[in-house]
Specification:
This protein is an all-alpha fold. Among the domains are: about 70-200, no CATH class; about 215-270, no CATH class. The protein is built from 12 helices and no strands. The radius of gyration is 21 Å and the shape is globular. The chain starts with about 20 loop residues before the first helix and ends in a 17-residue tail after the last helix.
Length: about 280
């Protein structure tokens, strides 16, 4: 199951801002993860695109996820200019797994979640939640020229995806050609790395391969980051218990085993609601 419900309402159930749209919610998180993986892999940081407006606690979660969900990708990072046969095989395995996911499993997951058979009313709601105006602003920022329509946004992202796929395929093919020309032992290490890459990120069902309860809570927090940021600005200030109860209401299930565990996790990522150092009376459920 997908880890959240698509929602365009904040925790007050009032009119929402651009951060509550899909384009306002997701690209900043993807950018934060891209930066976190580069940091963890000790690689040069790419230019920040959308993550500069995110609060520190989100970047802290992104750093934590590099030790679980994205650990395999981090470990593939090159060490200088030295060729590493097993890592090269892992990269090829990861590319093969990504191709399998997009060609076979992505459509199955969408169908399973009921996103391929939306009613007219649901389609209208989803269209509103996408946030095309915000998407235009994002695409304009990346291209350096005005993009003002939905069609232009779709054309831009289609070209970006195509370019990325072709570039990645060329890198993979060049890597394979280079790998098979190496000494036998390195060829063996290369092919041994391929199955490791196949399972380093996604499992057989297309879900994250290495998740525990802690990681699941992190993912839920990231999904609702705009709402959580509103809670952090609330007057009177809210508490972590209020946040946990609200998250469990949205998810329709228990998110954390106890309030204590949830609060300890929030401590680890510096997620505070009631301002520290001020004896405000907090609002409880």
């Amino acid at each position: 199951m997908l880890p959240c419900k698509i929602s365009g309402m904040n925790f007050y159930s009032t009119t929402v801002g651009p951060q509550h749209t899909l384009f306002g919610r997701v690209p900043p998180l993807m950018d934060a993860m891209r930066l976190a993986i580069s940091r963890a892999a000790e690689q040069p940081l790419p230019p920040v695109q959308f993550a500069d407006s995110l609060p520190p606690w989100i970047h802290n979660i992104a750093d934590e996820l590099t030790c679980t969900v994205f650990k395999g990708i981090v470990n593939m990072a090159p060490m200088g200019n030295k060729y590493h046969a097993r890592k090269a095989g892992q990269i090829i395995g990861l590319l093969i797994r990504a191709a399998i996911f997009w060609s076979k499993q992505a459509s199955v997951i969408l169908e399973r979640e009921g996103l391929t058979k939306l009613s007219v009313e649901q389609e209208k709601k989803l269209e509103k939640l996408i946030g095309w105006e915000f998407a235009c602003a994002q695409a304009s920022k990346l291209t350096g020229r005005p993009i003002t329509t939905k069609a232009q946004v779709m054309k831009f992202w289609a070209s970006q995806v195509t370019r990325f796929a072709l570039h990645t395929a060329k890198i993979g093919w060049d890597l394979i050609k280079f790998a098979v020309q190496q000494p036998v032992e390195e060829v063996y290490q290369f092919f041994s790395g391929i199955p490791e890459g196949l399972k380093c990120f996604l499992n057989n069902d297309g879900d994250f391969a290495k998740t525990g309860k802690r990681t699941e809570i992190f993912i839920v927090l990231l999904i609702y980051w705009p709402e959580i940021e509103e809670m952090r600005q609330a007057k009177p200030p809210l508490t972590r218990k209020f946040l946990l109860d609200w998250l469990e209401k949205q998810e329709g299930k228990q998110v954390a085993e106890s309030d204590k565990i949830f609060c300890a996790l929030c401590d680890d990522i510096s997620l505070d609601l009631a301002p520290t150092g001020h004896p405000f009376k907090t609002l409880q459920l």
